[in-house]
Design a protein that fits this description.
Largest sheet: 2 strands, antiparallel
Helix content: over 70%
Shape: globular
Strand content: under 5%
């Protein structure tokens, strides 16, 4: 793991220094070759299930989400080449280097075997993301970057207090996840509850859950669309995994029922916010960001109901990674055509870029959980577990909110594809190869809705049921 971090950081640093675009492209190829090689070594080279120093562990959660990260980050990076074509070399170098560093920091948080190490890498993602958000060097992006730094730093500080309180509650000298999990059943119940609340609220700025969800929405709005694909999936998954590890640590304790109730409340509030603001926003990037809040709320509800709901929550997050990254990459092509994301001003996309429009319409169908969407399976399992628990109020509320989501998504995507365009807008030429590329991620998600590979099922079983 140390060798991986050193190699990735050195290559990312080299991206800041290259003098030609060709050299920058080769640097990106080298970086993602290292990522792919590292993933293969973990899966097939005997590292899976092993520890690397006292701070990292190649377990099932880290391995699964790292493979997803490699795929999404590579797509985001190489789609950025077309998105940033009009930028000067200095801006492109900074952006490329920061995307590589962000990918490395996210990977470090995935494999962290220690609460403090997870915290350090998530704080590193804040700095990398802020640089990406400020890429366009405008007053609006500067405001968004500083807001992101301030709110995320506040959240990370809250999580740090939670980690300290968790260590004090368990009287554990080590912050290793396994050591804390072993000591947690003997911990003070009140301290454990406060620690979980602080960690959940603190990391909500990364996982885009209530209450600090707004900072992620602003970040996705200000960042380039390919980078938003990485932030809304890879970074959100890092926050989800950080909370999920604490959730699993507290499973043997007396407060676990209370933890699940808190996650239910947070999940429902996130679902309410996502569903209602999908109707209010007038920007397609914000629209997709509120969809992330809604989907993470569903995942939190899955953890809250427990049982098969926990398995469904992990599966939901995995499939959301492919779907949301595909849609954000399609939105990058939309900006290439219209030079904007205003919902009430752009349309007739089906006649300008048929492949991209099909990708958006298919993404709409998959994201609102119509078969063969994998989200249909995960949401059905969560609803089944909720019904089994007798929570009919929750079932009714979820179905009502999901109907609002379906209406909002369908009306907005159909408007983009079929509504007549504004007279003053003059669409530009489009690179359809980018639309085909983004569509391939959506195809993977649809395949998972019909068939789940044995390796994927085994990994999720180990994550959710162990």
């Amino acid at each position: 793991m140390i060798a991986y971090l050193i190699a990735s950081i050195l290559i990312a640093s080299a991206a800041f220094l290259v003098r030609r675009e060709r050299q920058l492209f080769l640097t990106g190829v080298l970086f993602y070759a290292v990522q792919a090689a590292f993933a293969c070594v973990i899966l097939f080279g005997g590292l899976y299930g092993q520890e690397s120093t006292a701070w990292f562990r190649f377990d099932a959660p880290g391995t699964l989400f790292y493979v997803l990260l490699c795929v999404v980050s590579a797509f985001a990076y190489f789609h950025s080449e077309a998105y940033l074509r009009d930028n000067d070399l200095q801006q492109t170098r900074a952006y490329s280097g920061l995307v590589m560093l962000l990918t490395t920091a996210i990977a470090g948080s995935y494999f962290a075997a220690n609460l403090a190490v997870t915290w350090i890498f998530l704080e590193a993602t804040t700095l990398c993301s802020a640089g990406i958000i400020y890429h366009r060097r405008t007053a609006q992006t500067l405001e968004a970057a500083w807001k992101y730094v301030f709110v995320c730093s506040t959240g990370i500080a809250m999580a740090y207090l939670g980690i300290l309180l968790l260590a004090a509650a368990t009287d554990c000298e080590s912050l290793d996840y396994l050591a804390v999990a072993e000591a947690a059943p003997r911990g003070n119940a009140l301290y454990l509850k406060i620690a979980f609340l602080l960690i959940l609220c603190g990391y909500s700025c990364k996982v885009e859950l209530f209450p600090l969800h707004t900072v992620g929405i602003d970040a996705n709005f200000a960042a380039p669309s390919p980078a938003s694909a990485l932030i809304s999936t890879g970074l959100v998954n890092a926050g989800f995994l950080a909370i999920f590890r604490v959730y699993r640590m507290l499973a043997p304790t007396e407060i676990f029922a209370w933890v699940r109730s808190v996650l239910l409340i947070v999940g429902v509030l996130s679902l309410v916010i996502g569903a209602l603001f999908l109707r209010r926003t007038n920007n397609y990037k914000r629209f997709l960001s509120y969809s992330t809040v809604e989907n993470m709320g569903i995942a939190a509800i899955g953890l809250g109901v427990g049982g098969i709901g926990a398995w469904a929550a992990v599966f939901h997050v995995v499939c959301h990674t492919f779907i949301k990254s595909s849609l954000f990459l399609q939105m990058a092509v939309v900006r290439q055509v219209y030079n904007g994301y205003r919902i009430n001003r752009i349309g007739d996309y089906i006649h300008i870029n048929r492949v991209g429009a099909v990708g958006l319409l298919a993404g709409m169908v998959v994201l609102v959980a119509f078969p063969p969407s994998p989200l249909f399976l995960s949401e059905l399992m969560i609803l089944r577990e909720t019904i089994a628990g007798g929570r009919w109020w929750l079932v009714a509320g979820m179905l009502l909110l999901l109907c609002i989501v379906i209406y909002s998504f369908c009306s907005r995507m159909i408007r983009l594809c079929y509504q007549p365009n504004q007279d003053e807008l003059h669409p530009s030429k489009v690179d359809r190869a980018l639309s085909w590329s983004a569509l391939s991620l959506l195809v993977v998600a649809m395949v998972l809705g019909l068939w789940q590979p044995e390796l994927l099922r085994e990994l999720i079983d180990q994550i959710a049921l162990s």
